[in-house]
Each structure stands twice: as structure tokens, then as C-alpha cells.
Amino acid sequence: MSPLDPALASRLAAALASGPAALFAELSALFTAVPGVRTATFIAVAPDRTVSHRIGTSNPIDFPVGNVDPVGDDPWNRRILGERRPVIGNDVAGMAAFIPETGGLVAMGYGACSCFPIVIAGETRGVVALLGDAGIFTPATLAQIDTLLPIAALIFTFEGISER
Question: How many CA atoms lie within 13 A of 99 on its CB side?
Fold first, then answer.
């Protein structure tokens, strides 16, 4: 295993020092560099687990920051918050099993989604949600994403990020 690229480490350090906006930009670039991933969105879970909300995205036009969704007893929330396991919808049917808005995502040209819970100290603090074309979430791609998730967890360590 090779160590983190020094140039990337330097960019991450500078982004951390600058604050959440700079870190969102760096993380978005990292995730959308994964082959086939076109959109990366970061979702925080409120400390009381009643709502989740978008705190950053590579596509703010289609996925505006600040959008709030109630945490309900649905397949997505049970998987992400209850089981602390990812949602992988590698085709439209797989997406529809967890994402009620699948029709809208398909209309925007997406055919696959993945949502990865960011678990810190046993609690799901947030989610990294990725969108792209059907079939992109291969074992190799998922392994590449897995290497980025601990870095993405840094965004959820900023004070107050979950309350925004």
C-alpha cells in the first residue's frame, strides 16, 4: 500500500485549514475523479436524528445545499442509520429500492447511485452520496471509493456542521 500522495495531502491540509467550503471542493473533486461518478453530495444527519440535510455537493444547481429531509422509517434510512451499511443501486431498479426520487434522477440522466454512511464513534454523522451511469459501481470502483471515505469523514468533524 502506498502512502497518500504528498500533493493531495497538501491540498487536503490547506482545505481543512480554510474550512468546510474548501474541503467540500476538494472532496467533490476526489469523488468525481472516480471513473463514472458524475455527482458527489454530502449529507449531514442532525444530532437528534430527526432530519438530514445537504451540506455540500459538486452539483449545487440540481442538488442545492440546505435541502432538508425528515428521517423516517424507510428503506434508505433503515439501511444508512439503522444498519450503518451503504446503499448501492447500480441500475434503476436498484436505485428505486431505496430512493423514492429515482424517476427524477433518471430524468436527469443518472442510472446508478450509492450512499455511504460516515460512521464516527458508532454514530452515522453523515452520508456521501454518489451518482453516475448504470453499472459504474463495480468491485474495483467500490474499492476506490472505500479509500476516500475516511478522508470524507473529515467534513463531519467541523463543529456545527450537522446543525446547519
Answer: 26
CB < 8 Å & 24+ apart, contacts of 101-109: 105/131, 108/62
Ordered domains of the chain (ranges, CATH): 6-159 (3.30.450.40)
Predicted model pTM: 0.92
| Number of neighbours of residue 31 by Cβ within 10 angstroms | 25
| 89-136 tens-digit pLDDT | 999 999 999 999 999 999 999 999 999 999 999 999 999 999 999 999
Residue 163 above 70 pLDDT? no
Count of Cβ atoms closer than 10 Å to residue 125 Cβ: 18
Which residues 6+ apart lie within 8 Å of 136 measured at CB? 35, 36, 37, 90, 112
Task: Tell me how far the alpha carbon of residue 24 is from its chain's centroid.
Answer: 11
CA 23 to chain CA centroid, nearest Å: 13
